Amino acid sequence: MWIDGLQYANWSEKIFRQLREGSVDAVQVTIAYHENFRETVLNFEQWNRWFEQYPELIMKGQWASDIGRARATGRTAVFFGFQNPSPMEDDIGLIEILHTLGARFMQLTYNNQSLLATGCYESYDSGITRMGRQVIKEMNRVGLVIDMSHSGDRSTIEAAEISERPIAITHANPYDWSPALRNKKDDVIRAVTQSGGMLGFSLYPHHLKDKSNCTLDKFCEMVARSAEKFGAEHLGIGSDLCQDQPDSVVEWMRVGRWSKEIDYGEGSAAAPGFPPMPGWFQDNRDFGTLETGLKATGLSQAEVDGIMGGNWYRFFGDSFGPVSDP
């Protein structure tokens, strides 16, 4: 079972077919960066059209059991998530409605300070806000996973402590392996994993050692060392694959509507667009290469199976339903 904890591709029939060629059983897709509620609903609508157009390739995922249905019918289950709390605007009541529509993950921040927490690009992290505590409680209640991938250290640790259900960092790597504002220090990863949460390893080049030149061996060895530190059962893949996206999308991701200036984030003024992916992971057809690389590190077959998807499957099963469910 292969599950990707996060992608933001420029979706098309080509990519849907590559998901099947790569035997990817489930994927979480970002359907909001800075969109408000109404704009996010339009993105749900677009996916409904794709489900109608390509029913032999993809299906809507809402529960972990949908992954079994997808596998049995040769399809990929698609789960929805937000990289910003903007779809709930400033209305806590929209959380349950968004979950009902199919959302299963929501980041409390995207790089900047939000109404809920502090993003990883801010110079001072004030932690989870008053509203953030209430939103965490409501997300716990309905089964919307708290994602801290773009949040600051203090905010992430506090979220793990406050949440009564395990949280996730869906796409990041250890900071000591590749220093980047988006990568996570050991105490942050430990706070998430020790409370039962998940870390999804990112293949986005700005998060990798040697960037686009990162080798398969280096990446897989990092995963193996992380398994020793934090427990293989808390690890997965969150590739952050942004396949076929035009560079204009990078501007929307990083800037949205909050600035009149271009924010190059972890890139540079000379290279504001998407960096080239490593040669060994170009698209969803390369998940088999990744599995082979993980096996070569000495991880057991059970550990590799978990990292490639089994751990996400268990986490999905524990996380997506309301707390009142038996």
List the helices and strands and how they pair.
Blueprint: E1 3-7, H1 13-21, E2 26-32, H2 37-53, E3 58-60, H3 65-72, E4 76-82, H4 94-101, E5 103-107, H5 130-142, E6 145-147, H6 153-162, E7 168-169, H7 186-194, E8 198-201, H8 216-230, E9 235-237, H9 247-255, H10 287-295, H11 301-319
Parallel strand pairs: 1-2, 2-4, 3-4, 4-5, 5-6, 7-8, 8-9
Describe the fold and architecture.
This protein is α/β, with parallel strands linked by helices. It has one domain: Alpha-Beta Barrel (TIM Barrel), CATH 3.20.20. The protein is built from eleven helices and nine strands. It has helices at 13-21, 37-53, 65-72, 94-101, 130-142, 153-162, 186-194, 216-230, 247-255, 287-295, 301-319; strands spanning 3-7, 26-32, 58-60, 76-82, 103-107, 145-147, 168-169, 198-201, 235-237. The strands form two sheets. Strands 1, 2, 3, 4, 5 and 6 form a six-stranded parallel beta sheet that branches. Strands 7-8-9 form a three-stranded parallel beta sheet. The chain starts with a strand and ends in a 7-residue tail after the last helix.
Strand content: 5-15%
Can you tell me the CATH superfamily?
Metal-dependent hydrolases
Question: In the CATH hierarchy, what is the class?
Answer: Alpha Beta
CATH architectural designation: Alpha-Beta Barrel
The number of domains is: 1
- Give the biggest sheet: 6 strands, parallel
List keywords for this structure.
326 residues; alpha/beta; TIM Barrel; 6-stranded parallel β-sheet; 3-stranded parallel β-sheet; globular
